[in-house]
Amino acid sequence: MTGAAPMPLRVSFSGAAHGGWRVTQSVPVSGEGLPDASYVAISEGQAAPAGGALWTVSGVTSNLRYTTTEEKSRLASMSAPLGRAEATRAALIPIRKSAVWWELGQDERRKIFEERSRHIGIGMDYLPAVARRLHHCRDLAEPFDFLTWFEFPVSAESDFNHMVERLRATEEWRYVVREIDIRLTRSASEGTPS
Length: 194
Prior knowledge:
This protein has helices at residues 69-78, 99-103, 106-116, 119-124, 157-168; strands at 10-16, 21-30, 39-44, 55-60, 89-97, 131-136, 146-152, 176-186. It is of the alpha+beta class. It has a single domain (13-186), classed as Alpha-Beta Plaits, CATH 3.30.70.3420. An eight-stranded antiparallel beta sheet has the order 4-1-3-2-8-5-7-6. A hairpin with an 8-residue loop joins strand 2 (21-30) and strand 3.
């Protein structure tokens, strides 16, 4: 998986018997989980998802929807790329928000997302150790609205856990109706992702 993705880029995550990332835990935080899988395989663009997968979820990279110009600039200057050799830990966190969230106007969602919950601000507190990429899937007939992908070194694992705890304690998370926290470690046989 590369850090700088052309827009939009379709990305599929498949729970399978082999792949670039070994599953260390999969916890349904809210709502239904996914079938247990040993590995997560990632395919980008036109590449076919892993064959024989227990599950596959897909999304596309897109423009930043709730980000101001200043926030976008700060994120770009502080963010690390995906695929760093030292980032041997990862998390895939699929999320679905309630119908109430999507009935709100864009301005009200922005107020909840950043002005009151500080989603972007909290994330920035953990850059550049935690690299991330968001995949939108609400309009793809997928079971989730977003697939959040994070990569980080072992030394940043407790910081990542703290970041997730902080986000889950916000007003924004009252609108989350399904969330699965899938933790992974890079497969030794796969090497560094492309």
